[in-house]
User: Fold this.
Amino acid sequence: MIKIFIPLLFIALSLNADWHFKNKFGRNVDAVKDNTLKFLKDEDGIGEWDYRYKFGAHISVDGAYFNTAYTYYEPDGSYFDWEFRRARIYYKGSFFDEKFFHEFEYSFTGANQFKDVFIGYKGKVKPLGFKYRAKLGNIKIPFGLEGYTSSKYNTFMERALTDSFSENRKLGAELLLYTNFEKEHYINLFMGVYGDSLDDEIEDKNKDDIQRYALRSTYGYKFEKNHLLSVGFSFLHSDMNKKNVRYKSGPESNLVKKKFLSVKVKDVDTVDNLDLEALYIYKDISFQGEYATSSIDSKDGKYNFEAYYLQGSYFITNHKRKYKFSTATLTRIKPKAGAIEVALRYSSLNLNDKDETGGEQTDMNYAINYYVNKEMRIMVNYITSWVDSEDYDGMYQVLQARLQIAF
Assistant:
């Protein structure tokens, strides 16, 4: 709990302080702008190296009520629970017009403490008409739209069941090439190679010695302002070296610690994961979906598992979801006087194939989000999960809420 206090204090200061400083011209300026401390960032550049920096934090507090009356394994297991879902602080810096950049993010919750820890460089190749960005360090593997988008900007409290096939951050190198032409067309290509995570390297345990190769490509078309279409695919190849592969999943709530679906394939040579993605935004309406498969080549044969989701959202207050073509990710919504969003998602996961019977699961997730401002969001999700596996059978219901503060 002491660890949690540090980011809480950090956020409390940033949201409530009312301090004043003199700028480089000697004028008094407010330290608070858009509800954050001005001294936490410098976007104008300092010195000959044009050094710029930003400090920030992310706190998410979840509470949930569970109803398990419709499952045979918990005939009357209704209860309430809560947790700090995320408590993170970060630092970002750059030099020379942000061409050289770096980031350090530390988490006080979860299994992995080190999140984004990397250095990078970005530039242009003018003769060929494209831009590039290179990263080296503990970075997120580019696999899927929802997986590569920050959790701060996803519509639902937890990612869909397709996230079962995603990887966490790993030590590696990534190259992004992107271009746009005729002002409407945008093309991205991500390439990367990865090993173990930074946490595993530091602790020298749970090291899997698995080599991973990732590829993600997207095409975006901008019809006009707040009207766009983006489609893409991701491919992740893993050389397993006879290690085991395990997939498991519960309902779309981190507070549910039980995993209804679980499959373990032993002595695996390679794993090939594929993800197809699509996003459509038209003013205050958006639709999004992904289809993911995992093909496992093991000593006992080949196994194929699949998952998908479809979702839609609507802003009652006439706001819009924001999409960044250059990184192919959804970004921060910045309401001036609050925004209300309603959303619905249907997701499915199948971990049955041949003699492996990990089970099947289907979730319906109903959501309402209130964006107080660009830093604060209140989220409510109601999830109905239908499970059919060897250990669990029936319907599981979760009503959960989140207070998120991120800047």
